[in-house]
Amino acid sequence: MTATESDGVRVIEAEAIPTRYARGWHCLGLSERFRDGRPHAVRAFGGRLVVFAGEDGGLNVLDAYCRHMGGDLSEGTVKGNEIACPFHDWRWGGDGRCKKIPYSRRVPLRARTAAWPTLDQDGMLFVWNDPEGNPPPPQQAIPRIPGATSDRWTDWVWTETVVHANCREVVDNVVDMAHFFYVHYSFPTYFKNVFEDHRATQIMKGRARPDARRSSRGPQMLGNTSVATYYGPSFMIDELTYHYEGFDINSVLLNCHYPIDRNSFVLQSGIITERSEALPGEAADEMARKLSGFIQLGFEQDIRIWKTKARIDNPLLCEEDGPVYQLRRWYEQFYVDVADVTPEMTARFEFELDTTRPVEAWEQEVERNLAAQAAGERPA
């Protein structure tokens, strides 16, 4: 028996990171980015993809390396509805079949490459990943976002950041109420989780923190209400309302990612804001840009933690922590074969966190910080 075991010290456990990538829809970014008539390389799922729009306007995603002699199709040319390899001009269609070899009388019968199922919706391009090769089930479709196609809302303000960590870290935030106070300087007062089928929801209400407020001449924010749902392993839609003195600002925030490899992923956010009497025209566009900057700052705060933290499979939790183990059991369904998905992974689970003690402690901390600021001291 080691000294650590005899002393009862908690040992951090961490199994190897899964070698497979999550089954589900993954957003690659805004669709218009890929509609410039050129092929685009995307590093994802441990490999390299090529994204291109044909002359018919359809977006296609293929494995980037040509099955003929390994040429990189993302260095090729879009010709009609096909991507032409820069090495020997083999023409590949969006269905993965070779359509033409200019110097050959016929195309070999087995001239096929991997074509990824795609979804072009609400201004975004999604690809379906499934290690078993099954098509996307209709019940796991990404829901439409009405504001994304309405003139009453702004255009998407989009950001992308490469994070050198495993993507489970970002999903853990679904249940982690306390980090919103300590990392993001917000003040949650209500927190609930609901997991069911392929969806994981976080419902949170909060108030503004006067000790973290920047000086501003405009209306002061009072708090916010958030209903954020992951639809599958990587795409979250957050119906986010900011409460100000005399009016509300309605927005839709997207928090999504796709894996580059096992130890890195592309973290993305998109936000649109509803136009209103309090926020007409350009004012709504400016607010969307402002909110996007605020969200990006929050991501940077998270990333600083993720870069240095340990991967931990057996977190030591207190009573006021969220249902981390239940979330990870839900998340596991995307990393096993469909036949191995158990009822425990998809059954409805609800948990409302008792915020009495956190709110009491945080109110005291805010008061201490305000007192220190008034005295010209640096808050603890």
UniProtKB/TrEMBL annotation:
This is Rieske-type oxygenase. Pfam families: KshA_C, Rieske. Residues 25-127 form the Rieske domain. GO terms for biological process: cholesterol metabolic process; lipid catabolic process. InterPro entries: Cholesterol_7-desaturase (IPR050584), KshA-like_C (IPR045605), Rieske_2Fe-2S (IPR017941), Rieske_2Fe-2S_sf (IPR036922). Keywords: 2Fe-2S, Iron, Iron-sulfur, Lipid degradation, Lipid metabolism, Metal-binding, Monooxygenase, Oxidoreductase, Steroid metabolism. Its cofactor is Fe cation. It comes from Thermomonospora cellulosilytica. Transmembrane segments: none annotated. The keyword Transit peptide does not apply. The keyword Iron applies. GO terms for molecular function: 2 iron, 2 sulfur cluster binding; metal ion binding; monooxygenase activity; oxidoreductase activity, acting on paired donors, with incorporation or reduction of molecular oxygen.
